[in-house]
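Hi V.,

You were right to ask for the full record rather than a summary. Here it is.
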Amino acid sequence: MNLKTNNEEKSKLAIEGLYNVIDPEIGLNVVDLGLIYELHFDEEENRLTCTMTLTTEFCPMGESITDNARHALQQAYGDYGIDINLIFDPPWNMEMISDEGRAFLGR
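Predicted structure:
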């Protein structure tokens, strides 16, 4: 996993929640798909920003996936405001899938 964070300890709980966010077309969670790029905790503002992507810019389930990611992070950090920063640069590719994800997909 190539995820950046400014707080390794706090990111563990966030990642745990994100493992429950499944891309419904692929059937794999967003962490193992490599869709989560960064988790940034702003302690002064009590905000958590999740920078992520989708498998394609035109993903028909994109809104559902980002909403589910926001909900999972809100469950983990209820006292934080949650921001989802959706980016497409760098673009997602199959190399971003974790070893666990590849095993799940039979690759």
